[in-house]
Amino acid sequence: MHSLKTFFNRLSPISAQSWDKLEALFSPQSLKKGDYFITAGETARDIAFLESGIIRAFYRNSEAVEYNKHFFTNPCFIGGYASLVTKTPNQIHQQALTDCTILTARYAGIQELYESCPDIERAARILAEQFFVQKEQREIEIVLLDADKRYEIFQKHFPQLEQQVPQYHIASYLGITPTQLSRIRRKMAGR
Amino acid sequence: MHSLKTFFNRLSPISAQSWDKLEALFSPQSLKKGDYFITAGETARDIAFLESGIIRAFYRNSEAVEYNKHFFTNPCFIGGYASLVTKTPNQIHQQALTDCTILTARYAGIQELYESCPDIERAARILAEQFFVQKEQREIEIVLLDADKRYEIFQKHFPQLEQQVPQYHIASYLGITPTQLSRIRRKMAGR
DNA sequence: GTGATTTCTTTACCTATGTAAATGCATTTG
DNA sequence: CAAATGCATTTACATAGGTAAAGAAATCAC
Predict the structure, then answer these.
(1) Which tens digit of pLDDT belongs to each residue from B4-14?
(2) Whose CB among A81, A156, B102, B141 lies 3.0–4.6 Å from B48's, allowing a Cys bridge?
């Protein structure tokens, strides 16, 4: 629970009483490599804090083409945030790429705390703002940069990930095929 | 101010006292077609509520290529949200595509209200969550759909906009050139 | 270790979309 | 009205990146 507390306090200071209520909502759990935390079509109920491991969030379209929208590496929150917020079905899947340990909580339980703990609602506001900022940053990369530059940014942003997950997942994150990623890698190596 | 009040109350109910404080922060202003509300490189200070008119938000990369990330049509909030939240310079520009009337407020003034008015902080949380959801929705369109489908969605989402702004702005929103948009239009017309 | 599976790279070919330039139409401006 | 400007379309050509298939390497299972 310690890393969770640290994470929250970095968002915004949490009083001891608020933390007690919050902590009570989370319970440890583990995911095996390949397990899904959320699935498109189902409405999310839980949010979780990733203590260790790697999770990918991805879309799959009607032709079964997948797009890895994000890799979660600990410590951070995972879960179908858009689904939790809107109470509509997930459009994304989240799958463990390695064995993971997580802390899960019912999102509704957290929402109830907003009434009695304004400091928690504040942390939630700041978290939502951060999520937005991260998405905007990623949007800029996707629409304004070519695949070569996106690959360079990926390498800087997730330094170790390239050794930990298959290359086709990285290609999917970059919005290209493994074929094209291989071409880019060859081009960059011969320089 | 009425549409602003309606907008806030739809996010989450605002007490009369909170509304009085909030209303006092906003003052009417107008933008001429072509005027910029925010500019990349500058740190945003104000947020605004668009009462009438059309605004485009766009990125411009180092090669002067532009990408229209969003069209704001009233009534909604405009402003460099990521910049306001992070207090770092804007990465985007926002420019009036028609004459606009807006209500502007110092964002710092709103943030100060969070202390005394939890109902306003709640509205801010919900707004941030909505911003995130909208961005995720748009991300799905960009990465998973081809330009033809994105054009169809654009037409549904902004039914009148096609008659109100030049086609090259729409092409830029779709992530293609006017040339390609023209090809798509011809293809769709001949069917 | 040996075979089986998974992952990565390479090749050949194809397609969507970009670039640049020409044209035509519509709208504004003196 | 005439010229100028802005915008949409078209054409010819170029290119980034996709698809499919095959081979090479690495990893896993027994």
Answers:
(1) 999 999 999 99
(2) B102
